[in-house]
Amino acid sequence: MSLDEEIRQRLEGLKIPTHIAVIMDGNGRWAEQRGLTRLQGHAAGRRAMKRLMDAAIDFAVQVVSVYAFSTENWRRPENEIEGLMALIEETLREEFKELQEQQVRVVTSGRLCQLPPSLQELLAKTEHDTADNKELTLNLCVNYGGRAEIADAAAAIAADAVAGKIAPSEIDTEVVATYLYQPELPDPDLLIRTSGELRVSNFLLYQLAYSEIVVLPVYWPDFDAYNLLEAIEEFNERKRRFGGRPS
Ligand code: FPP
Q1: In contact, 24 and 220? CB cutoff 8 Å
Q2: pLDDT reported for residue 194
């Protein structure tokens, strides 16, 4: 895919974040504005996710984490939950060939055991079959909650401590990080949230400690390569100090 000339020029000299995390918010409001159902909004959100992936590959981003379904989303009406599960499944099936062609490695984060069995199987198969792909890692966060992830890590650490595999005195922030769902991924450099809300909403709580946050005013289904570029331009304006002093 050839990059739009304007995008190419604006990208020149920009530092590209290694890992971008995305809260894809606003599908419902986008649909409501158009007199469509919420599920039609999520289907449009799927098309926006494809634009995100294509642009991330073009811009040479290494890792993209997307918040597809949170541990709190079970509170939504049953038909929306079922529709979202079906949409994720359909997307994985329909996009599988392209994921392979684009060399996308899919990994997952979340309490997958609570998902419909057919989705669990498909996620496991997709992870397995794309494991050697090198162009971009897509971290699909499904039934994901930051607090649940930290609680799961704490439980696993406690189990290892009881089994004598680790001593409490050895447990520091780096050890805790190795018990998270995807310990080998670098922390996100940039968190993008669409639809203007200034919240982290239980996403990647441990990993976002020093991420730059860019909130865009667009609803997720309207997101495109220009919005990604805009967020990266804003990221480039920030001075990252990681708690230290300016250099
Ligand atoms: C938030 O919008 C979005 C979600 C809860 C679901 C995100 C899912 C997609 C973008 C569909 C495609 C995903 C995959 C993995 C194929 P909202 O419904 O909370 O919007 P609102 O705040 O306007 O109601």
Answers
A1: yes
A2: 98
Residue with tokens 């230290």: 244
Using DSSP's 3-state secondary structure scheme, residue 169 falls into helix
Length of the chain: 247
Where the chain has pLDDT below 70, the residues are: 1-3, 246-247
Identify residue 73 by its one-letter amino acid code.
N
Pocket test for ligand 1, best of 23, 42, 89, 127 (most atoms within 8 A of CB): 42
Atom of ligand 1 nearest to the CA of 91: 16
Map out the domains of the chain as residue ranges: 13-145+187-237
Strands (E), the chain: 19-23, 63-70, 104-109, 136-144, 190-193, 212-215
Q: Give the residues surrounding ligand 1 with Cβ less than 6 Å away.
A: 24-29, 42, 45-46, 49, 68, 73, 87-88, 91, 140, 220
Asked whether the beta carbons of 72 and 202 are under 8 A apart, the reply is: yes
DSSP letter (8 states) at residue 235: H
CATH number of 13-145+187-237: 3.40.1180.10
Global pTM reads 0.97
Q: What is the pLDDT of residue 2?
A: 59
Q: Which residues contact 59 (CB under 8 A, 6 or more apart)?
A: 11, 16, 228, 229, 232
Catalytic (active-site) positions: 25, 73
Tell me whether strands 212-215 and 190-193 are parallel, antiparallel or unpaired: parallel
